[in-house]
Design brief:
- This protein has an 8-stranded parallel β-barrel, surrounded by 6 helices.
- The protein contains 9 helices and 8 strands.
- The chain is globular, with a radius of gyration of 17 Å.
- The protein starts with a strand and ends with a helix.
- The mean pLDDT is about 95.
- The chain has helices spanning about 15-25, 40-45, 65-75, 90-95, 95-115, 130-140, 160-170, 185-195, 205-215, and strands spanning about 1-5, 30-35, 50-55, 80-85, 115-120, 145-150, 175-180, 200.
- By secondary structure, the chain is of the alpha/beta class.
- It has one domain (about 1-215): TIM Barrel, CATH 3.20.20.70.
Length: about 220
């Protein structure tokens, strides 16, 4: 299972960020996701075998494609190896699927030039499941093979997150899903281990501690 940690706290200073990342590096995470302004600092603290991911147009997905491309390009230049784009909400709510495909293709072209992976955030609490299935299929058809069911911007019950992931996977079985709901206790860790996940993203060192303590048993 691919294990990721995300840190999207906008109130941290450099010393606090360094302490947090130092705590995270005690665990064998595959990826650390941070806001654009933190990429350089986190890249300097981590080894090359840990991918740095960055959310683009986070958390609402309201920017036009030109702005999304500029933000993604800056993130890549600063050291991001994974771009996590928030689905463009305006386009999807208005069924502008051709424009959505243009968004995907433009970001794929940019990421391909720099050997960077592109993924997308869905938002199962906002979109209908029928729309989520369509989004996932469009992404997969164009070569984006990994998504996350939510942005994680709001509190997100891990059980709901896993259920949404399972429903999307049932309709689009070839899409890889990184579950990213909030993890608080050992019972949730047990549930996650039984869920046969492709990936798990957590946003607290407590969750990492629970997870790795259980994996070591």
């Amino acid at each position: 299972m691919n294990i990721e940690y995300c840190y999207f706290d906008i109130s941290s200073n450099d010393a606090e960020l360094k302490d947090i990342i130092g705590s995270v590096l005690k665990f064998q995470v595959n990826c650390i996701s941070v806001l654009p302004s933190y990429i350089k600092s986190v890249r300097s603290l981590t080894s090359d075998n840990i991918d740095i991911a960055c959310p683009i147009d986070y958390p609402l997905g309201l920017l036009d494609i030109k702005s999304r491309l500029i933000t993604a390009e800056i993130a890549i230049k600063n050291g991001a190896k994974i771009i996590d784009a928030v689905c463009p909400s305006y386009l999807l709510c208005n069924r502008k699927y051709d424009k959505f495909r243009e968004d995907i293709k433009s970001l794929i072209d940019l990421c391909s030039q720099h050997d960077v992976q592109l993924r997308y955030f869905l938002e199962y609490r906002i979109y209908s499941y029928e729309l989520l299935y369509k989004i996932a299929q469009i992404l997969l058809d164009l070569g984006v093979s990994t998504v996350m069911p939510s942005t994680g911007y709001l509190l997100d019950d891990i059980n709901d997150n896993v259920l949404a992931s399972a429903l999307i996977n049932k309709k689009v079985p070839k899409i890889n899903i990184v579950v990213n709901g909030n993890v608080w206790n050992q019972n949730q860790i047990f549930m996650l281990q039984k869920a046969n996940l492709y990936g798990l993203r957590v946003n607290s060192t407590n969750a990492l501690n629970l997870l790795f303590n259980n994996l070591s048993k």
